[in-house]
Design a protein that fits this description.
Helices cover 45% and strands 12% of the residues. The protein contains 14 helices and nine strands. The protein has a nine-stranded parallel beta sheet.
């Protein structure tokens, strides 16, 4: 029987916010859901309007969304979960995957993986006291692979909706190889549904992973989607001419730029936000590295838009 594959947008802090998700879905196809970038664990900040504004239902009509929490204090987690329940969210995701050193050093994100007893203690406190389903996004470990292999059998004790595993160690950040073979070891231990995450950058990469992991039907795409926004549709069998791809990328960029301009205060914030997107989006332009330097060095809106326009013009010649 043919497996039906589902694809989800991975959370990238500072980029894949509600506006980005909404504009993306107007221009591209192939996604079935998304995990929101994590909410900062501010003590007693669960009802803070600024904290939750990106998760307001009216801003998130385009794609099924699961909020992500970084909290490691059970009481704060439960408080925030209750506020998210009031907003209508029936599922949450706990971030045990963020590899950023300033997060990991505080024993948050993937930095908590070497401490399985603390993870279990937190779950024992929060799972009975929240109304939502709970999934976990994690790494294969922080320092070593044995961390996930020791943790997963203990996670089987909890009614988690899924484990989303990025097939790297935390200390790798986003560099170096992924380890599908280590993911398979997790798959063999887990009683929960597993999502695969990590370097799905092309149709060919996905096909290779699908052959290695035929049991997996849920996939999460992050940087590969930003470098090629057409990727989920291409994996699903759609094809695009180069002209069509660049036309759609141009329309996407223009709408994202204009919407950001309306919402952000001043050109500094606007250019900073768009330059973050271009660090990844430049992957859609095989010979665009020189143009990327001009885009990231642009000091005014005019210089920025000129550099972007020249990049598109050169790509379509």
């Amino acid at each position: 029987m043919k497996t039906h594959h589902l694809f989800y947008m991975a959370p990238l802090k500072g980029i894949t916010d509600a506006l980005f998700r909404s504009v993306y879905m107007k221009h591209f196809k192939g996604l079935d859901g998304a995990i929101a970038p994590f909410i900062n664990p501010q003590r007693k900040g669960g009802n803070n309007k600024a904290l939750l504004k990106d998760l307001l239902p009216e801003r998130n009509c385009s794609l099924p969304l699961v909020p992500q929490l970084l909290n490691t204090d059970p009481e704060d987690f439960i408080t925030l979960a209750n506020h998210l329940a009031d907003l209508g969210y029936d599922e949450l995701n706990w971030n045990l995957g963020c590899p950023v050193p300033m997060v990991a050093r505080k024993k948050r994100g993937s930095g908590l993986l070497p401490y399985p007893d603390q993870i279990i203690e937190i779950l024992e406190r929060i799972v009975p006291n929240i109304s939502q389903k709970l999934s976990i996004k994690m790494r294969l470990g922080y320092h070593q692979f044995t961390e996930s292999l020791q943790l997963i059998p203990r996670l089987n004790e909890f009614p988690l909706s899924a484990l989303i595993i990025h097939a790297r160690l935390g200390i790798q950040l986003y560099r170096g190889p992924t380890y599908p073979e280590k993911f398979r070891e997790c798959l063999e231990l887990a009683h929960h549904s597993l999502f695969y995450n990590g370097d799905i950058t092309s149709v060919q990469t996905f096909k290779s992973l699908k052959e290695q992991l035929p049991e997996i039907s849920h996939w999460m795409i992050g940087r590969g989607l930003l470098a090629n926004p057409h990727l989920p549709a291409e994996i699903n069998g759609s094809s695009f001419s180069c002209e069509q791809k660049f036309e759609e990328l141009w329309a996407f960029h223009q709408e994202l730029f204009n919407e950001q301009k309306e919402r952000l205060s001043g050109p500094g914030h606007l250019l900073g936000k768009m330059k973050q997107v271009w660090i990844y989006l430049i992957g859609a332009f095989p010979s665009g590295q020189k143009a990327l330097k001009k885009i990231t060095r642009a000091s005014t809106e005019e210089k920025y838009l000129t550099a972007v326009m020249r990049l598109f013009e050169s790509a379509t010649k």
